[in-house]
Amino acid sequence: MPPLPSRFLRLALAGVAALAAAALALAARAAPSGDARPLPPEIATALAHARVPRDAVALLVQPLDGGPPRLAHREGAAMNPASVMKLVTTLAALDQLGPAYTWKTRFYADGPVADGVLDGNLYIEGGGDPKLVLERVDAAFRALQAAGVRQVRGDMVLDGSVFEAPARDPAAFDNEPLRPYNVAPDGLLVNFKALILRFAPQDDGTALVHAEPPLAGVTVPAQVALARGPACGDWRGALQADFSDPNAVRLAGRYPAACGEREWAVAYVEPASYAQRALLALFRAAGGELDGAARAGRRPAGARLLLEAPSLPLAEVIADVNKRSNNVMAQQLVLTLAARRALPGRMEEGRAALAAWWRRFVGAATPAPVLDNGAGLSRDERISAGALGRLLLLASHHAQAEVYRQSLSLAGIDGTTERMRERGLAQVVGNAWLKTGTLRDVAAVAGYVRGQSGQQYAVVGLVNHPQASAARPALDALLEWTANDLH
After folding, report:
1. CA distances from 284 to 211, 278, 336, 393, 427 (A)
2. Confidence (pTM)
3. What are 372-413's pLDDT values in tens digits?
4. Which domains does the chain have, with CATH numbers?
5. Could you tell me if 195 and 265 are in contact, meaning their C-beta atoms sit under 8 angstroms apart?
6. How far is C-alpha 285 from the chain's CA centre?
7. What does DSSP assign to residue 421?
8. What is the DSSP letter of 46?
């Protein structure tokens, strides 16, 4: 056989090389991930100090240019990600709804309006707004007055039927029913169903107590005695607060003067009546008059639309979800996606919507997460570091990539990573956009890191172990190692 011309020989050799590279890549994918490869020394040392074994950790550092992973350790293991699961929920919402999407809270009347008086009932129909906070409620009521309704000769009827959120025990997750993160979602979610107490020490030996929002029928002490001393200490415990009575907050203790001004947010003890109490008090505070009562109900088909109050745009909402790790807002997103499939929106439909989106966006080849509520406030949710890395890689090429990135906490600057500056992460501060997650036995971080070289990385670190909280320095070391890519 005559020798091949040199150009054909080069092509043949290139083809062999390409096939060999492909075979190696396939073998790498098929091989057990990571355990045989040494971890960077600073990460390994931090894990050893925390007494967390390698097999309780999953790590991935993936260049966004599509190159091979810089670090991959147990990236295929299904792990509890805690609040890092919000990365899935917020991207799914952004991809399907768009950054300008808004929820609508609508106000209806079932009677005539004349001379500022509604002769009938006022209906407030929730649209699932994740951030219907006090300022926006007040603005809506003032707009309603400008539209001609200052007095209602009937009831205020609240309709949250766009979602069907089953009743649940707020203490079931961690026996902390008054923690705001345990608040359940609602079609008419007002101010996260939270009561905020603000304490301001005075010169007369007392601290003024201001409660926000006002809740109709709920009394709160106007002041509490001060405790003198050099230290603030456990000031919440010192107050001996009792929130068990839906009609009264009791403070039997003292407020430490050394604490200065502080605030305490608690989930209202009777969540089913929160919207009724808050909206009635806020309507009156805005100058409105209501002859009847505030109650739950459904808007009748023949009611006339008076006002439509839009929410903040989705781009701002997901920034609150990710930067501040707001659990109930994340669940509102899941139920919103559910309500697009069928009314009322139910959590099981939301899980189905997220699973269908995952197959379309990420692909069936990448194992889908095990979803519960989409917020990460769950002992059952699972996802692999590899799947999260794939999600982040695809998101970086999305039309709304920058909106998504900016929704994450900028390391050392804002959100849940604001204190990274204090932890000495010099290369990470200002160069990482992150979502953190913490539960009992779980510590997690994921997001984007810009290296000193200018290379951008998707980074995932998941720890599932009883000593997970002690392993947070190992996740810090992962981020710093990624940023220091010139070494």
Report:
1. 16, 10, 30, 50, 52
2. 0.91
3. 999 999 999 999 999 999 999 999 999 999 999 999 999 999
4. 33-99+315-483 (3.40.710.10), 104-168+273-311 (3.50.80.20), 180-271 (no CATH)
5. yes
6. 30
7. G
8. H
